[in-house]
Design brief:
Length: 236
């Protein structure tokens, strides 16, 4: 079956001498893993279309019962120059891409998740607060998947525990995922005030590491499997 679909490139790795295995999140079939034959040759027709975070139109030969399909054509739909030239924007985008790659299911279409990703990558390209935008997008994905964080009053203690069963923050030492109140406030601000994102300078290194640790633990709990996310390593 030949499928033509809009897609966001989530990840790519070398395959053989000239090819690459690429993970796409598509509008028509959710996550797909494809092989791009000859993409690493000088005369490849793909150009830079299969670089991570590209928004493309792809033609894919989908083989029933297989996990690896073949992409025969791909062309960029938008020019996302900031994502490709700014380290901060690229890093923030890769955090989003990896979470989509690790949490979504092959061949399972999800229009709401697609909208979050596609529009989010566009927003991220022009954002003046890329890390805060990446936090908003990842919590928006949690919401689409049915376990978004609810609005709740911030406990007056310096440390909170977020109960993964309901997403509410309670004073330490209640059960749940431990987090400083400051990091929790900065994380939830991205969802509660999407038009007034905190500048990235407001997120300290320790805030970012706490947020990344929380997101990995929170998604792991709801998916009933441990998520090992590698992109946060660049924040260390």
């Amino acid at each position: 079956m030949i499928v033509s679909t809009d897609a966001v490139v989530l990840h790519g790795r070398k395959f053989g001498d000239t090819s690459r295995i690429v993970t796409l999140y598509t509008a028509e079939m959710g996550r797909l893993t494809v092989v791009a034959k000859g993409v690493r040759t000088p005369k490849s027709p793909f150009g830079s279309a299969l670089e991570p975070l590209s928004i493309i139109r792809a033609t894919v030969y989908v083989k029933a019962g297989r996990d690896l399909h073949t992409v025969s054509a791909a062309e960029p739909l938008l020019r996302l120059s900031t994502l490709q030239s700014s380290y901060d924007h690229l890093t923030a985008g890769l955090l989003v891409a990896e979470l989509f790659m690790r949490t979504q299911t092959d061949g399972q279409k999800d229009g709401m998740a697609w909208d979050v990703l596609q529009s989010g990558i566009v927003d991220l390209n022009t954002s003046t607060a890329p890390y805060a935008t990446s936090v908003r997008l990842r919590l928006s994905l949690a919401d689409v998947m049915g376990f978004g964080l609810p609005e709740c009053p911030l406990p007056t203690t310096s440390v909170v525990r977020i109960d993964p069963t309901d997403g509410l923050a309670r004073p330490d030492p209640a059960p749940g995922i431990r987090m400083s109140a400051t990091a929790f406030m900065r994380m939830t601000h991205a969802v509660l005030h999407p038009g007034e994102l905190l500048p990235d300078v407001d997120f300290s290194a320790s805030d970012r590491l706490e947020i990344e640790s929380f997101l990995a633990a929170y998604f792991s709990w709801h998916l009933d499997r441990r998520l090992t996310l590698r992109s946060p390593d660049v924040l260390r």
